[in-house]
Amino acid sequence: MSSEKVLYTSSAQQTRQIARDFAALLRGGEIVFLRGPIGAGKTVFVKGVAEALGMRSSPTSASFSLMKRYQKGKKTLFHIDLFRLSEGEVFNLGFEEMLEDEKAVILAEWPDPLASMMPQDRLEMDFTLCGGDERRIALRAFGPVSHALAEGLWKSQNK
Question: Which terminal Cβ of the chain has fewer Cβ within 10 Å, N or C?
Fold first, then answer.
């Protein structure tokens, strides 16, 4: 069962701040699927999360490398970009091994090739271009961990 919350952002800086607020809620083991057209702010969001988690190198679009792993102490962040991949190609990425790391946070852009492997508990974030710099971010939670994450983020933005 999913529930939906909606956030709006009017700049890349605001998207990064939302990402930093989101990162403060992460405990490890969360899986987040990011959807939206090119330029909608998915990678900006990932950068904000990585910065807030204290990762040294800043994520870039993973489209060319498909998957990047960032480590800071005991914190692990996987940034996956499955743009133009088929479901069969995803098996070579090692997604199942990433899921075995119960403390890692997984942020996956263009996640549709994962459809058959999608875990029960996941947060889906749909980024929509609204004109100018405005973005709509719809949060859909599937499972108790993701529901708490979506609710916490929504509350942090609607104080």
Answer: C
**What pLDDT, in 10s, does the model give residues 29-45?**
899 999 999 999 999 99
Percent of the chain with pLDDT over 70: 87
Contacts of 149 (CB under 8 A, 6+ apart): 22, 25, 26, 30, 123, 141
What does 88-143 look like in DSSP terms, one character per residue?
Answer: HHHGGGTHHHHHH-TT-EEEEES-GGGGGG--SSEEEEEEEEEETTEEEEEEEEES
Strands of 10-95, DSSP E:
31-35, 67-72, 75-81
Q: Give φ, ψ of 33 to 5 degrees.
A: -105, 125
Report d(CA 88, CA 32) in Å as an integer: 21
Q: How far apart are CA 3 and CA 138, in angstroms?
A: 10
Distance CA 50, CA 114 (A): 22
Which domains does the chain show, CATH number per domain?
2-138 (3.40.50.300)
Strand 75-81 and strand 105-109: pairing?
parallel
pLDDT tens-digit map of 57-79: 666 654 556 778 888 888 899 88
